[in-house]
Amino acid sequence: VSAEANHTSQIPPETVLLVNDDVLVRLAVAAYLRDCGYRVVEAVNEEEALAILTDPNVKVDVVFSDVVMSGAMDGFSLAQWVCENRPGVDVILAASVERTASAAAEVCNDGPLPRPYEPQMLVDRIKRLRAARAAKR
Amino acid sequence: MAVELSAESAAAATVLVVEDDALIRMDAAQELRSAGYNVIEACDADEALAVLEARIGVDVLLTDVNMPGSRDGLALARIVRRQLPHARIIVMSANRYAWEGGLVDASVMKPYTVPELLAAVAALLAVDRSGT
Lengths: 137, 132
Description:
The structure holds two protein chains of two kinds.
Chain A: E1 15-19, H1 23-35, E2 39-43, H2 46-53, E3 62-66, H3 75-85, E4 90-95, H4 97-107, E5 113-114, H5 119-136
Parallel strand pairs in A: 1-2, 1-3, 3-4, 4-5
Chain B: H1 7-12, E1 14-18, H2 22-34, E2 38-42, H3 45-53, E3 60-64, H4 73-83, E4 88-93, E5 106-109, H5 114-125
Parallel strand pairs in B: 1-2, 1-3, 3-4, 4-5
Helix pairs in contact in B: 3-4
């Protein structure tokens, strides 16, 4: 996948917490995001994501998670936690639209990212959400 | 001990970090990336084996010993040693183990410092094992 390299205007780079229990998907998406200039922190499930989000030494700007995960929590639970506890963090959930359209609209800032998705779609979504947040400041 | 690693060898080396503690894995991965390595993160041996099955090249296996999942770090090391004979294997552990001969190339004791970790990786990569 060819990555765009025009994300250099934002210093320091924004941090994306990538939550996915498929290691091959996770490493491919993480590599793309890093090529686009983002700092990426990886989590295998929602429990790991919460450990990272509650670490005072880690600053996260965007959480990108699959809805269906192998742990006790799903992506909706994680998104709900982020909305309630980290209001400055944007959340993007990825899942089949049929399963998540209505539910995701309640916990995502911008609705679900339909699977399968191209990595560029994710980057576009991140940019849109961060731009909208910056405009509100 | 300070071990210098050339930019070329750092850029070419891929380190597979296998650790079930997300924060420890994150810190190790970030330090290794900052040092110029390509880093793949796996939470257990099963994820690491999925990486191997995908035929993704790995130069260094950096693995915890005690992990949940179907195998511990030593069982993973045995598989890596068999499938990737040129790969270097480093284990991270809070305990001292007696490895079987030839299984592990180096070990770092938890809690380790960043210089200790980077030195262990660089020292092994500095040894040419292409002919072995």
